Amino acid sequence: MGDGASRKYGFLQDLFFVVVTSCSMYYIAKSVLDRLPMGGDPEKEQHEQARIRAAANLRRLDRRRDDESGSEDDSGRDPNKARRTRKEELALDQYESQIAMEVVAPEDIPVGFDDIGGLEDIIEELKESVIYPLTMPHLYSHSSPLLAAPSGVLLYGPPGCGKTMLAKALAHESGACFINLHISTLTEKWYGDSNKLVRAVFSLARKLQPSIVFIDEIDAVLGQRRSGEHEASGMVKAEFMTLWDGLVSSNTQGLPARILVLGATNRIQDIDEAILRRMPKKFPVSLPSNSQRRRILKLILKDTKTDPENFDIEYLTRVMAGMSGSDIKEACRDAAMVPVREFIRAQREMGVAMAGVKADAVRGVRTEDFFGRKGGGQIIKDNHARHSGKSAKKQVEEQDDSGDEYEDIEDGEQVVEPMD
């Protein structure tokens, strides 16, 4: 009996030891593996950061809506708007959280239609065909279902003519959520994740509507499909077009989805035909005309000190023909640096400390400051040289004409005098 009890006790002791040892080894191995880069989700920290940043972006949208709801409550209009689901409380998956990091609140866009020089016809067309149907769908859908906002708008033209600025102003003026979609956002190393991100773009846009999905240089993302194209790229384009067609479906209230895909490009010929078909509104943003260049100059130089006696905006408007809005801005930036550069050099020659110098002592910008800069645009220099050459030639011709008349008179007088 004693031997049997001792053996039983020894067996239980060994069993307990084995169990404890196994559990200890399990937890030790699990702890070590979790600390290794290959343990668990390798992108867990990245996904968590994306979720936090997405929540912060959505919180800004809620703050703006709360301000609008407060003003509407004070004025006694539509107090039920505050009952809508807060965007911060929306349930987002990991792919939607990555896209939500690209969401920009309308008040964070410091560009409006008043900041754009020229393009009045395009701006008015965008207001009537995009902004009003996007922000007031009940008004347009009541009249006719054909008056809904278009599913896509394309801005195309030479570089630097204001396409991106026009897109920002459109988002700011419409008050819609602006999803600034980058190429890198849709590029993933895992096979199939890019398609899921494309699906997340449209699902998030539907949750945040009214919303604008902006794709700059859209020809690089949705270019022509070719036979030798990589399979992943073709799948992304197919997924994008399939989901894009789904935007025309109505919601539970019978209203069309208030989602707009806005693209900008300077290579419209490289965009796939199926993508162009889904963008019924196409606006050419060309080089500014004479009146538009004058308007751009006034906008850029409105807060810049100029020399009224030596500044000719009409001449600058003429010699800037062929320049884009971006080129004109850079020319104004370089010209504004000329008085500052001259003042600094003069103060250094006199040995004056720059710390005590007042900015009011700097002279204003002159017309000549636009032409003597190194590294500037060649167009304005060529135009200025051509205009200067014409003016000099005209002056020489006038002087020649006046000189010939004077010499003829002298010759006549000399001829007449001997006859007397």
Automatic annotation (TrEMBL):
GO biological process: extraction of mislocalized protein from mitochondrial outer membrane
PROSITE patterns assigned to the protein according to its UniProt record, in alphabetical order: AAA
Superkingdom to which the source organism belongs: Eukaryota
Domain AAA+ ATPase: 149-289
Annotated spans, Disordered: 55-88, 376-420
Biased amino acid composition, Basic and acidic residues: 59-88
Locations listed in the record: Mitochondrion outer membrane
Compositionally biased residues, Acidic residues: 398-420
Keywords: ATP-binding, Membrane, Mitochondrion, Mitochondrion outer membrane, Nucleotide-binding
Keyword Transmembrane helix attached: no
InterPro entries in the record: AAA+_ATPase, AAA_lid_3, ATPase_AAA_core, ATPase_AAA_CS, Mito_OM_Translocase_MSP1, P-loop_NTPase
One GO CC term, this protein: mitochondrial outer membrane
SUPFAM superfamilies: P-loop containing nucleoside triphosphate hydrolases
Principal location class: mitochondrion
Membrane-related topology note: Single-pass membrane protein
Comp. bias intervals (Basic residues): 384-393
Family (UniProt): Belongs to the AAA ATPase family.
Name this protein carries in UniProt: Putative ATPase family AAA-containing protein 1
Species whose genome carries this gene: Coleophoma cylindrospora
Species lineage: Eukaryota, Fungi, Dikarya, Ascomycota, Pezizomycotina
